[in-house]
Design brief:
The chain is about 80% helix and about 0% strand. By secondary structure, the chain is mainly alpha-helical. It has a domain of about 210 residues: MetI-like (MetI-like fold, Orthogonal Bundle), CATH 1.10.3720. Helix 5 packs parallel to helix 12, helix 7 crosses helix 8 and helix 11 packs antiparallel against helix 12. The protein is globular. About 25% of the residues are buried.
Length: about 325
């Protein structure tokens, strides 16, 4: 099956998955205990204000009717309006999404640039000093809480050295990039630890295979063997792990965005959950789901590019 037909088939398969997710999101959000009118308006709101708010959000409508209206609007790419911010949800998401995407790209950049070389080096220098040092770092990355690492980096590089901004997103592209470096490193530390350990073990296993020994017997250079035979094959399982982490980054960014005060989608979701802003919560979760489905599709395609033996069926 060629790549284009496979992509079309996978996109069609995403439709029922997406439909099931919309049902789960719609029902689970409304299972949260408490009255959204009281949460939004506060205890000092009058009875008339509370009733008007309930009528506005369709609080008294049957659940199936609320879902039908939600699904009909969704088919028209209308995610509704935020009652907290008094803006269309799609505008809020488009405004905040670039921050979260920028943070995710920053994390992936540091993970690939630092984690891949360290993992490969640890595998090639098995049971030697570089291997021990890298493995000690990976243990630290796995055990250190992200919020603590972020606060330490802020205190050192933001407050004392003043090399990076503290809780300031900025207005220009260079300011945005500077604001993403510390949170990107903070979240990449834990992911790099997993990538390093996985890549190291893969390199160790592949280095002892028969086809690597045969490549050496043919007189190929060590650099070519490392790149084409060892590193490329070691990337296959590591790519799966990285794709899963990228998908989880969209949810995990909530903590990092809170610590570094970034105006991203995670912070928007936290505020919306606390205020019971149904429309924003539904829109944000659906964006997360669509992103995860796309990332899984891209991972399968990358798999077929790294290993020609992998067929897209």
């Amino acid at each position: 099956m060629n790549r284009l037909s496979y992509i079309i088939r996978r996109l069609i398969q995403m439709i029922p998955v997406f439909f099931i997710v919309t049902v789960l999101v719609f029902v689970l959000i409304r299972c949260i205990p408490g009255d959204p009118a009281l949460t939004m308006l506060g205890d000092r709101a009058t009875h008339e204000m509370i009733e008007a708010y309930r009528q506005k959000i369709g609080y008294y409508d049957p659940l199936w009717l609320q879902y039908f209206i939600f699904l009909k609007d969704l088919l028209h790419f209308d995610l509704g309006s935020s009652l907290r911010y008094s803006e269309p949800v799609i505008n809020l998401i488009l405004e905040r999404l670039p921050v979260t995407i920028g943070l995710t790209v920053s994390v992936v950049f540091f993970t690939v640039v630092i984690g891949f070389p360290l993992g490969f080096m640890a595998g090639k220098k098995r049971n030697k000093l570089p291997d021990y040092i890298i493995r000690i770092y990976s243990l630290f990355g796995l055990s250190a809480p992200q919020f603590w690492v972020g606060l330490m980096l802020l205190l050192m590089f933001g407050v004392k050295i003043k090399l990076f901004p503290v809780s300031n997103w900025g207005d220009t592209l260079p300011e945005h990039i500077m604001a993403l470096i510390l949170p990107g490193i903070t979240q990449a530390l834990g992911i790099m630890a997993v990538i390093i350990r996985n890549l190291r073990n893969n390199v160790v296993d592949i280095s002892g295979t028969s086809y690597v020994t045969f490549a050496r017997s043919k007189g190929l250079s060590e650099g070519r063997i490392d790149l084409r035979y060892i590193f490329r094959n070691a990337l296959l399982p590591t790519t799966t792990i990285l794709s899963l982490w990228i998908a989880s980054l969209l949810g995990g960014c909530i903590i990092i965005e809170t610590v570094f005060n970034l105006p991203g989608l995670g912070a928007l979701m936290i505020n919306s959950v606390l205020s019971r802003d149904y429309s924003v919560i539904q829109g944000g979760v659906l964006i997360f789901v669509i992103t995860v489905l796309i990332i899984n599709l891209i991972t399968d395609i990358i798999y077929s590019m790294l290993d020609p033996r992998v067929t897209l069926n």
